[in-house]
Amino acid sequence: MRSPTELTAWKKLADHQQEMNSVDMKSLFEADPKRAEKYTTHAAGWTLDYAKNRANEKTLSLLTDLAKEAGLENAIKGMFSGAHINNTEDRSVLHIALRASQAQESLMVDGVNVLEEIRTTLKQMEKFVAQLHSGEWKGHSGKTITDVVSIGIGGSYLGPKVVAEALTPYKKDDIKVHFVANIDGSDITGKLKQLNPETTVFVISSKTFGTLETLSNANAARDWFLSNGGSEASVSKHFAAVSSNVKKAVAFGMAEENIFPMWDWVGGRYSLWSAIGLPVAIAVGMDNFYELLDGAHQMDEHFRTAPFEENLPVIMGALGVWYINFHNAQTHALIPYDHYLRAMPAHIQQLDMESNGKSTLLNGDGVETDTGPIIWGGAGTNGQHAYHQLLHQGTRLVPVDFIVPLASHNPIGEHHAQLFANCLSQSQALMVGKTLKQAQQELRDAGTTDEQIAKIAPHKVIKGNRPSNTLLTDKMTPATVGALIALYEHRTFVQGTIWGINSFDQWGVELGKVLGTDIFNRLVSDSDNSALDASTQALIKAFKKAQA
Ligand code: F6P
Q1: Res 1 pLDDT > 80
Q2: Which first-to-last residue range defines the signal peptide (predicted)?
Q3: Cβ pair 218, 151 in contact under 8 A
Q4: pLDDT at position 47
């Protein structure tokens, strides 16, 4: 794999950026009455309006050329056929198989039909979820289960948590689902305080069953259970696991039928569609979980088959590259105008930043370009009263994705019209801005003196010409939420492919894990720390002093 800078389309885009530098988006709308229509496309229950971008036909055609020249067509084929596109771990990348249509009979990977394994696991999930909701599953004292606590971290936590929250209107009332991730004891302590050990089931989600945070929290939950009426013999009634390490889960005390498999061809941050999504299935029921998978599958099919010019993940991914590499954008904001989707930016942050936070090309050479941006964001309209100031008048260019449903699950008064209006007005304001002349006129109309106008007007200037996409759907449902997350998964893959990096490993995280264990051992022993840097030595000393 070569550096993308060597591609013809990349070089042409660099020249084209010079042409576009002085072009204002407003003038693009004025010049083409059909611009909004032309730059709107649909898939899997979503409409993408990308007209408010610093892009004309040439830009979009060069970006499509870039994706093609970077080998995106083959990369997509590779993903969907189970090729080992995760080259540093020599693995397939098959989250798409987890949501494959029931009509598809096989997907052979290294001699195994993975669809059979997936479907067997879905049946196992169905049984588990049904037993919990029907009350057939009893705790050790014969009581029915009222609470399920999912313990995991990273991909084994955030995706399911965000989706469960996004699907709040679909939640079943009989069982409450909670999530614990942080090694900070306050996380699990706070949760356990609300729970009754007789009516609580813990689902330990860890692909490796070796992650420090998850094992520490699982052990704390087990200790709490044992010291509050539970026994070793009844651990299996209160603990289940999702893991590829069955041996370790059995050693913990789980019954084998309550251990749900994971596979090395699913990356953690892409795993919510597997049994890692069990907490979601418990929260909203299996039917809704299947709808979630189906929505994601619709987006997969769109990504696999639609021409690049109409392909949502390709358009969004390529436009992202345009801003990151040709306009020096360092960050990308996601602003959902949907209360239940408020945590989604955190999941996409994990998905994208763990995937594309890379500096090495597939061939082992260092990258010559910027890669993954800092992904951030939060709920509209709350953000308007916080960081939107920087979006409008700050010195940095921040491309934004606005995400908004046409209908609310809670239609009271004019709330939804107000919410929708705010979403639209933000993308409009980012584009149109306010000129000095307009600011001066505004002040003059308000009866401000000339002296004051001269002082204040420059502060009211908003440059505008700031890009955004708007993603619209009828309503947030399991299917549209599934499709939305799949859209961002593929967008990440599109960008990784253009940059020539492997979006599916995460070696950077490993160094922190290794050093964390070393420092922990130093904190709990009398080790000689003199070889460490002075700052770390002093911090270790401070901790030990506080414990003494
Ligand atoms: O953060 C690194 C990581 O390996 C993620 O990729 C993964 O989702 C998370 O840790 C948790 O790992 P596990 O599921 O093995 O506990």
Answers
A1: no
A2: none
A3: yes
A4: 98
Do residues 343 and 162 lie in contact, with contact meaning Cβ atoms separated by under 8 Å? yes
DSSP 3-state assignment of 102?
coil
Q: pLDDT tens, 2-52? A: 899 999 999 999 999 999 999 999 999 999 999 999 999 999 999 999 999
What is the three-class DSSP state of 336? strand
Looking at ligand 1, which atom is closest to the CA of residue 269? 8
CA of 155 to the centre of ligand 1 (A): 6
pLDDT at 50: 98
Please say whether the beta carbons of 201 and 145 come within 8 A: yes
List residues bridging with 30 in a β-sheet: none
Ligand 1 centroid–CA 528 distance in Å is: 31
Match 């198989």 to its residue by tokens: 97
SS3 readout for 482-526? HHHHHHHHHHHHHHHHHHCCCCCCCHHHHHHHHHHHHHHHHHCCC
Distance 506 CA to ligand 1 centre (A): 9
**Which atom of ligand 1 lies nearest, measured to the CA of 276?**
14
Q: Where are the alpha helices (DSSP H) in 446-477?
A: 450-460
- Mean pLDDT on 359-388: 96
Give percent above pLDDT 90 in the chain.
96
**3-class SS letters over 370-409:** CCCCEEEECCCCHHHHCCHHHHHHCCCCCCEEEEEECCCC
Q: Is the CB of 159 under 6 A from ligand 1?
A: no
Ligand 1 contacts CB of residue 154 (under 6 A): yes
What's the confidence (pLDDT) of residue 29? 97
CB neighbours of 28 closer than 8 A, spacing ≥ 6? 35, 56
Q: Is the whole-model pTM more than 0.95? A: yes
Q: What is the pLDDT of residues 278-336, one digit of tens each?
A: 999 999 999 999 999 999 999 999 999 999 999 999 999 999 999 999 999 999 999 99
Q: Tell me the per-residue pLDDT of 431-453, one tens digit each, with 9 for 90 and over.
A: 999 999 999 999 999 999 999 99
Distance CA 110, CA 86 (A): 14
Which residue has 């059995």 as its token pair?
250
| Ligand 1 pocket mutation pick from 95, 182, 211, 356 by most atoms within 8 angstroms of CB | 211
ipTM score above 0.85: yes
* Distance in angstroms (rounded) separating the CA atoms of residues 210 and 249: 10
User: Mapping DSSP to helix (H, G, I), strand (E, B) and coil, where does residue 159 land?
Assistant: helix
Annotated catalytic residue 140: no
- Picking from 438, 435, 440, the residue whose alpha carbon sits closest to that of residue 454 is 440
> Closest Cα to atom 16, ligand 1: which residue?
206
| Alpha carbon distance 526, 61 (integer Å) | 63
pLDDT at residue 548 tops 90: no
Question: Nearest 5°: CA angle at 354, between 348 and 356?
Answer: 90
